[in-house]
Amino acid sequence: MRRLTYFIATSVDGFIGAPDGDGDFFYSHLDAEFVGFLAAEYPETISAQGRVQLGIADAAPKRFDAVIMGRRTYEPGLEQGMTSPYGHLPEQYVVSRSLAAPPDPQVRLISGHLAAEVRELKARDGLGIWLCGGADLATQLIDEIDEIIVKTYPVFAGTGMPMSRAGFGARPLELTAVRTFGGGQVVTTYARGR
Asked: What is the pLDDT of residues 96-124, one digit of tens each?
């Protein structure tokens, strides 16, 4: 059975984007060591355009062969002409009720019952499923998430888009890995407590 992993960037105070959802402020906190780690360990989570720039365009997926993103996560790339931002993955899903048709044949839309469709995806053979963003999807899928990988950047945002809007609930997690980097980034991995 495949696992759903919420692999997300956050500020030290838990925000994945500015109040309008823009996460570009994280890019100023990238350094060679951290980017090298992402390219080596999570090459499939780098957009097709970024993979070309990093010289890893042909890198095979290591952990994920499917990505699920919300329309607002998908839209910035779409506005720049990237209709298939993760075309190197066999499965790309955009959750949207407003898009009538996918802008690219490699992208599939999910507009029905999200949790049920994710359970069907998890039942298929393959690598893991990457929940790319954002807060609304994490809220809707809180009970389906098997693992959370938090890339914490050395910035305090003060306010913005939270990791989830699921409301209070003590959901136990098991710490499975921590990796720190010289630029102040920390990657923390948690498995969902059973």
From this structure: 988 888 889 999 999 889 999 999 999 99
Cα–Cα distance, 60 to 81 (Å, whole number) = 24
* Structural domains present in the chain: 4-192 (3.40.430.10)
HSE of 10 in the Cβ direction (CA atoms, 13 Å)? 22
pTM of the complete model beyond 0.70: yes
**CA 99 to CA 80: how far, in whole Å?**
17
The length of the chain is 194
Question: Residue 167 region, left (φ>0) first, then alpha (ψ -120 to 50), else beta?
Answer: left
Residues 6 or more apart from 120 whose CB is under 8 A from it? none
Give the phi and the psi of residue 14 in degrees, each rounded to 5: 85, 20
